[in-house]
Amino acid sequence: MNKIIYLASLSLLTCISASAQQSTPDSTATLKDQTLDNVTVTARAATVRTLAGAINGKDILRDELFKAACCNLGESFVNNPSVDVNYSDATTGARQVKLLGLSGTYVQMLTENLPNFRGAALPYGLGYVPGSWMKSLQVSKGNSSVKNGYEAMTGQINVEYVKPEDPTGVSVNLYGNTMGKFEANADGNIHINGNKNLSTELLAHFENNWSKHDGNGDGFQDDPQVRQYNLQNRWYWKTGNYMLHAGLSLLKEDRMSGQVNHHHSMTAGLAPYRINIGTDRYEAYMKHAVILNPEHGTNMALMGNVSMHKQNASYGIKQYDVNEKNAYASLIFETNFTPEHNLSAGLSLNYDYLHQNLSLPVGAIPSNYGNLYPLVGGIESETTPGAYVQYTYNVNGKFIAMAGLRVDHSNVYGTFVTPRFHLKWVPASFLTIRLSAGKGYRSPHALAENNYLMASGRRLIVDKLNQESAWNYGTSLAFLIPVGQKTLKLNAEYYYTHFLSQTIVDYDTNPQELHITNLDGKSYSHTFQIDASYPLFRGLELTAAYRYNLVKATYNGQLMWKPLQSRYKGLLTASYKTPLGLWQFDATVALNGGGRMPEPYTLASGNLSWDRNYKAYGQLNAQITRYFHHFSVYIGGENLTNFKQKNPIVGYQNPWDNGFEPTMIYGPIQGAMGYVGIRLNLGKRM
């Protein structure tokens, strides 16, 4: 199969080169042209731009996303120096975002400013948003606006989909890689009766990974087989001062992993260790907006979404089933008293319901397996109404102060208050200063959010958990420095997160146990980052970044480095587009610093089960894109340095033993991977 894909890639590039002289670039994808009396003025659109306002963040556009394969949301941060995406274990394919040195549970995930992918959807939600569906991403750091709730502790990631009201057309994306994965994506919209005020859109996605690849020879798949069907229908209607956005989506996914060569289990007279996770997810959303006074920007909006997430999962002989329902609604009023003064106020309601069960079938426990898991089941339900007010003082964008306050009441945790403050100051044309401070909260769902831990052979112990809360403080400096005829963009930032209450996954105290418990002591994160970008010459943009993470928490009474967290990261990206826009070359080099492994235990041989620390490792990703009038073709590779974590599954020889541990992952499991794809653009769709 790998040879077929390689030969197809070479043939495709040969055809591209032969037709290069007869083709023109896709202007809608690469350039913005304006023709005046036979004179064409061409301007390159920025693919990453700073978010407006006081909040520190970036707006990542489609051109930037398409510099890599970008199969889904989880693969959209290859070129981003601030966001890491890591596998949570070596068997299920669960992934998590890391921002400011902390896991994705502290990053609020939004789809078009509506909270999404909560609870059981968190471990796999990054794979639920196909890359070609995204119009842009907004990544903000630190505490965000109180409009979207109280949960953002280290930042927000907001996904904007392509819109029904965009110019009509159809887009198709086909992708295949050397690991046996195939994807097909399509999106199309129409303006009904030619009326831009009434539009609908259909988005479709299919993926299938049929390969049982085992590159390290441990008998386990390096990547799960995933078959996913994803469909979404979206509508837009505007009449007078009223606007409506609404949509429905459904997703079905089957995820299969585990042993492909189980001679060790056969020797013990046991069946192969397999993992099967079936997911059905349904969503609906609706946004109503009414403009009351256009002159003062006075408007009201009512928006909300509902979701049902049903997951049935088996990990060997363990069975975990969860049926999760979530509903969210928000009523917002906003007005500008004057051009300098803005007031926003609103009400919100969030409802979470999880019916879950974790069990072991009677009589199915091997004698050497032990009573590792207690039977767990029950219902978690929380209703949280809240209200907020936010005031913004803006002097021509040069000085912006934004202060917000929320008050929410949980039927489980009681009443809590969320203050947040952001400041932006532009003292000179070349300097922008931002400051932020605020508090965040979240309600933990131990089993749902960490269900990948059930692949471990350790005994899982879950305490009664408190609501998590943390203060976050940040500052950033952005410089625009003339160098030659061009501008060097330089950014430096520092963030400090201090937890008052936190859910801890304790790997260290007992090697026979995984203990999900409450923080008893200190926990904090210091993150410093500096990055710079410069257009070396026409068409070539270079970006370099360095980030240092100091993340510690208290485990068993000791303040320790957080395990499986790299202490630093260096990133260098280069992007070059030829003068006519026909070819684009992108490359990213990343150096991921070393870190601490969980406390090892002593084997019968007297050796340690694993090293106490892991070393730094490098990765290289590259892609070549060829643009045509109505389509583009791309070919690339990921992890071209071929770095793989050695022995990612501890105790793979006997997965039925309590020494079986696939969740201690700090680096990639797969080696070098090649891919090829085509993007078709039929019509005027952006």
Present the secondary structure layout.
Elements lengths: L1 H17 L8 H4 L1 E5 L2 E5 L4 E3 L6 E5 H4 L17 E5 L7 E5 L2 E2 L3 E5 L2 E2 L18 E8 L13 E7 L7 E9 L3 E11 L6 E12 L15 E15 L2 E17 L4 H5 L6 E20 L4 E18 L2 E21 L2 E19 L16 E20 L3 E12 L3 E15 L2 E12 L3 H4 L9 E4 L5 E16 L2 E16 L1 E4 L6 E6 L4 E15 L2 E16 L2 E4 L6 E10 L5 E10 L2 E2 L16 E2 L2 E11 L3 E8 L34 E11 L3
Parallel strand pairs: 8-11, 25-29
Antiparallel strand pairs: 1-2, 3-4, 4-10, 5-6, 6-7, 8-9, 10-11, 12-13, 12-39, 13-14, 14-15, 15-16, 16-17, 17-18, 18-19, 19-20, 20-21, 21-22, 22-23, 23-24, 24-26, 26-27, 27-30, 28-29, 30-31, 31-32, 31-33, 33-34, 34-37, 35-36, 37-38, 38-39
Low-confidence stretches: 1-45, 362-375
Instruction: Using the CA coordinates, give the radius of gyration.
Output: 25 Å
How far do the termini sit from each other? 34 Å
Structural class: mainly beta
> Mean pLDDT, as a whole number?
89
Beta strands, count: 39
The CATH superfamily title:
TonB-dependent receptor, beta-barrel domain
| Total of helices | 5
Largest sheet: 22 strands, antiparallel, barrel
The domain tally reads 1
Shape: globular
Strand residue percentage: over 45%
CATH-derived architecture: Beta Barrel
- What top-tier CATH class fits best? Mainly Beta
Helix content: under 10%
| CATH fold group | Maltoporin, Chain A
Keywords:
686 residues, 57% strand, 5% helix, mainly beta, Maltoporin, Chain A, receptor, 5 helices, tonb box, 22-stranded antiparallel barrel, disordered N terminus, 6-stranded mixed β-sheet
